[in-house]
């Protein structure tokens, strides 16, 4: 791996938009480059949602990752890598009991019990069948003491551990977790991140309610494919692999 850089910006619309724009305008960036900001004014989330964050409370950053080996049909490995690195980072501040509550909700929300602790937005650029680069945008709730009523299921690390942290310290810890996972990943070995992703998958065991275009049904999670489709099996044995917008989890 060539050099890795950390770039700090005080305020930006979105670290994902900024980083993607820098690449598009021809800036020469290393294989791994992180942009972190104190305040994001137009943070973007999944499903076209906005991502709001509070300076000092949240950690908002994007990582450019170029992986020579990664094919488009394996692109979900990047989500699995990011989710695993974020979970390991959170886990490093938690007691053993607290760690048991950490989960990744497909495709890549980090949950503590039934509450969201971090969100990840990954944008890939493909050249032919190969992933040229990925921009991994991560928003981690670190020091928030409470959330507005429109975010009833959000939680922060501080609400769990009772301890406030310097967000940059958390980012440095995440980089150290990532640097342990990257050597295998860059060699095209994705089995470990997939195994961990499946092990910590939210609602992994048993039947739960989901909704697709035809309505509500109960199913169990069988697998997540290398492209990132969620494979669900219904109680009658019928299986289908869903893309992100084709299915949603329902409350029990
Ligand atoms: O909807 C989600 O859960 C994904 C949220 C991702 C938010 C992060 S914050 C840093 C990066 N920049 C963005 O605009 N979005 C991601």
From TrEMBL:
Entry keyword set: Ligase
Keyword Ligase: yes
InterPro entries: aa-tRNA-synth_II/BPL/LPL (IPR045864), Biotin_CoA_COase_ligase (IPR004408), BPL_LPL_catalytic (IPR004143)
Keyword flag Ligase: yes
One Gene Ontology molecular-function label: ligase activity
Domain BPL/LPL catalytic: 7-186
Domain of life: Bacteria
Leader sequence segment: none
Pfam families tied to this protein: BPL_LplA_LipB
PANTHER family: BIOTIN PROTEIN LIGASE (PTHR12835), BIOTIN--PROTEIN LIGASE (PTHR12835:SF5)
Descriptive protein name: Biotin--[acetyl-CoA-carboxylase] ligase
Organism encoding this protein: Porphyromonas pasteri
